[in-house]
Structure formats: structure tokens, C-alpha cells
Amino acid sequence: MTVSTPLLVTFIIYIFGMLLIGFFAWRSTKNFDDYILGGRSLGSLVTALSAGASDMSGWLLMGLPGAIFLSGISESWIAIGLIIGAWLNWKIIAGRLRVHTEHHNNALTLPDYFTSRFEDRSKLLRVISAVIILVFFTIYCASGIVAGARLFESTFGMSYETALWAGAAATIIYTFLGGFLAVSWTDTVQASLMIFALLLTPLIVIFAVGGIPQAMTVIEHHGPGFTDIVNRMDVIAIVSMLGWGLGYFGQPHILARFMAADSHRSMVAARRIGMTWMILCLAGAVSVGFFGIAYFDNHPELAGEVNKNGERIFIELTKILFNPWIAGVLLSAILAAVMSTLSCQLLVCSSALTEDFYRAFFRKNAGQQERVWIGRLMVLLVAVIAILLARDPDNKVLGLVSYAWAGFGAAFGPVILMSLCWKRMSRNGALAGMIVGASTVIFWKQYNFFGLYEIIPGFIAGLLAIVVFSFIGKKPSEAALQRFENARQEFLSD
């Protein structure tokens, strides 16, 4: 395959720009707090776009359009569930978490927060939450690497094996160098690129098929029910898709953006910016998959690659319909989606290994620079493991994301929600909620009972475990109750 020069030049410029941002962030990273949370200095715009970009990984431009292309508009229930869940996350969790983490020993990571919030001197909460982060994030990182590999494989004709390393290299380098500041600044650029691609591409596809009425006619003839939002959907299927929204309460890479905001007062503006960006991006992704059905029905001779793998639909439409220079910019949006999510996942894993294992158990008095460099080495370690997991070319992006999303949503979602809203919650409750939530997801995934998405039983089981076990054993101390009350009053004061 001959590599298009405009595509190659565009990708090189884009990657070089991200590495340059990483270099400047490296110059601004003075201590471990800067490396992990950017010194809690993010304003509303960067908080909103960074949270959005870190949330919407390669599945936004590959997995979701591919699902719509293969099954029709009924797959958009996932998008509806995500919009509801994201809004509730901004409304209920964002500001409270920002305040509570500061009141609880200025916690930098979720395991830090859990340990301080529940006065866990046994360190069990720290260890179990860090293990959950490492297990599910390694799977999540693998999904991003698969998406990047698919992009490089399709665009440059590389073997899948070579594309794995090429797609991951730039992300690893700028995360290694700049830490949280690099990730947040690049996320802002990447979020802008993603929304540009997802607004422009469906408009050009609609124009290419002759307009919306003509497209709808073709799609209706493509197969029964492709235009019906409840086609082949029973109650369990719809609830499962809407259940994706529950995952937001427990995603460490998104919650880290809330913790890093300059103030909880920034959250109102950040919520408006973030939700507008998200709704437009999801609508664009659904439109690409939906109207892509009409385009490839009209041009079956061009449909070879998407018939083999529906997740390539955005890539193929972009290469076919756009000038190579514009196509290079739009395809960089997939790389942006992959890099933005993968980078913050690597950083959260790095922080868990550095703070919650290395410092907690081996080097309690480790200095700032030592912790920064250990954090950088942990980025490399997790990245290599994720690349090894992603080596199977039959991996599907959406499948890997759904498992990791459910794991975090059920293990951490109920614990975060209740820890911010229920003063009486105890350390036993938090521990039980994590273990029961995560275990339920793993068990349910193996047997797929009733076809119900595993996050729903996992989330419910986690909530019940928290309530039951909070009343078993030791109650929270007066100091813990007072810290909770102080944080609550600060949040409510504005």
C-alpha cells in the first residue's frame, strides 16, 4: 500500500505538536503533585474538555459508529445513557469530590481519598482500590492501543504488530515527560479536533448521499428496523445500554479531572461546556455510522473494508470523501481520542503504583523528584503490559471498553457516590462495596445472565453491600464525621 504524503505529513505534525506540549509541561512539572494533578490548577474550560476527551476514547470514532453501522439506530441507546450519566456525574459528584479530596488530607488519588475518608490504618482500602485500578485500566489501556493500531494499520498499511507500537509510542512519550499537565493541555487540543471531525464528517456524508430524505429511504431498504430505535430491543437490552451511564460515577481518569479543578465553583461552567461538547460529539458519531449505511449501500464496491470490520467506518468514509490533507486532519481526531484517554489512564495507573504501592509500602519518605521518576517508569511498565494484551488482532474496541467501564463503574461508583453523600458510611462499607461490585461484574460477565450488562447488577450489589456493612462493625469517628461536615458546608456555601 502506498502511503499518502499529505496523510503522513499531517500525522507527523500532529504528533510533533503533542510532544511539544509534553515538553513544555515537563518544564512546568516541579513536584509529584504537579505530575499527578497539575497542582489543582485547571480552569473551567480545560476541566470540561479534558474530562470529555479523557472519557471519549477511540470507541467514540470507531466502536460507536461501527455498532450503529452494523445494527442501526437502536444502538444509540448507549449514547442516551452516557449523556444522562455524564450530566449526573457533573451535577452530583464533580464539585463535592473536589472539596472532599482537599479536606481529606489533600488526597491526590482515589485510593488516597478512600484511605483518608474512612481512616483506614490497615491500608486494605488502598491496596484493593489500587489493584482494581491496575486490573481494569490495563484492559482499558489495551482498548486504546487496539484503536490506535487499527488507525495506523488502515491508514499506512502497517502490519497489526507494528501498528500497535506506532500507535502507542507518542502517547507514552508525552505522558512520560509531562504528566498531568501534558495530558490536560493536550486533551484540550484533542477535544477540539474531535468535535471538528464529528461535526464535519456526517455533514459531508449526508451531502454525498443526496440529503437526509434520500439517505433514510436507502437505509429503510437496507434492512428492517435500521431506522427504528427500539428495533429488536427488549426491556433488558434497553436497560443494559442505558446502564452505561452508571459507569461515570466510578471512572478514575474522569474523576481525576474533577479533583484537579482550581475550585468547585468552576464546575457549573465546566458542566455546561462539557455537556455541550459531549452531546455534539455523540450525535456526530451516531450520524457517521447511521448515514454511512446509506453511503456504502450506494457504493458497494467501496465497502470491502467496512464489511470486514464495521469499526473502520469513520476511517474509510474520511479517506474516500475528503481531500488527503483534510482527511489527515480528520483521521488525527481518532489518534486524538485514543491518545487523550490512553494518556490519562496510564497516568492514573502510574499514580496508583507510585503512591499506593511504592510510597505506601516501600519508600514512605520518598522525595518529590524520586516519586516523579518512579511515576514515569510506571507509565512505561503499564504501557508495555497493555500493548502485550492488545496483540490479538481480533480484539474489538467496544468489547474491551465495556468490560473495563463496568468494572470501574461497579467497584468505585457506589463507593464514590455514597462517600460524598452519606456521612454514616464506614470503612467496612467501602471495602465491601468495592469487592462485591468488582466481583459481581467479573462473575456476571462470565455467565451473561439474562443478557443484562454486568454494570447494573454490579452497581446494585455494591450499593447494597455498602449499606449493610456500614452498620456492621466500627462506626466512623467523630473526627471523620466532622471532616465530612466541614467539606459539605464548604460545598453548600456557594
Your description of this structure?
This protein has 494 residues and is mainly α. Helices cover 78% and strands 0% of the residues. The chain is built from 20 helices and no strands. 58% of the residues are buried. It is found in: Cell inner membrane; Cell membrane. Belongs to the sodium:solute symporter (SSF) (TC 2.A.21) family. It is a multi-pass membrane protein.
Give the topology string: H per helix, E per strand. Answer: HHHHHHHHHHHHHHHHHHHH
Examine the coordinates and then state which fold CATH places here, giving the name of the CATH topology.
Sodium/glucose cotransporter
Evaluate the radius of gyration: 22 Å
Major sheet attributes: none
Q: What is the tally of beta strands?
A: 0
Low-confidence regions: none
Tags for this entry?
494 residues; mainly alpha; Sodium/glucose cotransporter; 20 helices; 0% strand; transmembrane helix; proline:sodium symporter activity; ion transport; L-proline transmembrane transporter activity
Show the helix and strand layout.
Blueprint lengths: L4 H24 L3 H6 L6 H12 L3 H13 L5 H27 L6 H8 L6 H33 L3 H49 L3 H11 L12 H8 L9 H8 L7 H32 L5 H5 L4 H9 L2 H39 L5 H22 L7 H25 L5 H21 L7 H16 L7 H15 L2
Helix pairs in contact: 1-8, 1-15, 3-8, 3-11, 3-12, 3-15, 4-12, 4-15, 5-10, 5-12, 5-20, 6-7, 7-8, 7-15, 7-16, 7-17, 7-18, 8-12, 8-14, 8-15, 8-16, 9-12, 14-15, 15-16, 17-18, 17-19, 18-19
